[in-house]
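Batch 3, record 17
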Amino acid sequence: MGSITTWMAAIGTLGLLSFAWKDNKFYSICEHIYVASGAAHALVLGVKNIKANAIIPLAEGKLLAIIPIVLGLMFYARFIPGQMRWTRYPIAATVGIGFGQSLPRLASTNFVSQIRATFKVWSFNSVLVIVGIICVILFFYFSASKRGQRFLQYPSRFGRIIMMMAFGALFGNTVMGRLSLMIGRLSFLFRDWLGIVG
Amino acid sequence: MLEKIQKMDQRIIYLVLLIALSFPMFRPLGLPVSIGQTSQDLYDFIDQLDPGSVVVLSIDYSPGAAAQIHPQTIAITKHLLSKKIKIVYMGLVQYASQFTTDAIAKAGDYNPVYGQDYVDLGFKPGEEATVSAMSKDIHATFVTDSDGTAIAELPMMADIKTASDIDLVIAFDSGGTRHWYVGQMQALYGTPVGCALNSVNVTNTMPYYDAGQVIGLLNGLRGAAEYEALIGDPGEATINLDSISSGHLVIILFILFGNIAYFGLRNSNKRKEA
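Prediction for the assembled complex:
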């Protein structure tokens, strides 16, 4: 029947699944324990990260570590009345670094490479992709009325169908994912906890 | 009747689904596993790597997604160890080391030696900046492994210093880390990237696969079962695949009944109004 940790996990699983029947006290208790343990885990890891990435390098004489430490501490200025403005500097640094790092990547991987790949192989699929992209863009073209203008109306309608198909694929994958999660829990209950299946 | 179907208590649906998912665990249906092209491509790429090649496994999933992705980690670990490929485990999500330890323990009798056959660099915060930094200098980014041992002291890491020394990166991803690997490693250094994903992330990763930016990918528990079939070592995912199939069947039937009830009711209301 498993160890004490298996029992704890099994009781937590049953408690959280009981919400499918209706909201109840057992569910609330399990939910609170889950949130509390998650927060505690994140706190411990946060302290560990500060130690590994700030305190130890500083202790080893890497004085440049002072810059991110000071920027990090400035985030807490929001808790000092009247000193909120100091939080703008670390936010500006974070946004600037993040933007500078991701912009070239986005342009290259999500735009240029995709366009290049679309035109590389002339197959039915690549033609469908090109037609689909144009039609979906036309669906979101709002600068002219589509009513009565067939050259806008029909492609726009086809664009909507293409999007519906994409949403269908996304939904199908989501369903499969959610079922897998449920199977994971059932497998744990039947195999690891109760040991009634091989 | 149609109205009853429309207003069916959702708990009945849960119950039927629960039975459909549980039944195959007690009486396996033994449905065949067909291999998808994306899984086959990932397998083929790994299979053609020479012994001694270096593969980075980025363990970037949380316990919530483990049911789908962890069997993939175990299956790929088995394949890599059987080919004597060196594995560098790391993670951009905080649970990386727990999953790494479990995957190595469940990988079988290959008895890999730590520091020679595999290393665990553990979790590193910093998200995309970490991927960018490690592409330039792994030793400066991960100064120590997950246990605090200096990575300079690990024999395997002596020749693994930049993205150019890596033969393949696989992002085991339930969030968005694959985008960083494709952008910072594949695009800038040409390092091949593979993905092992939870199902919900597959649709928006397919454009990378179609464009050749990702060499192959695994789709959730099904992808794990496909990989287990490819390496000829059926495991947890294969056993659970029957449950997925019967669950899908039940959902398709519910969608069908729901739509029949909806359109039937709408038509009868129209007829009444006329």
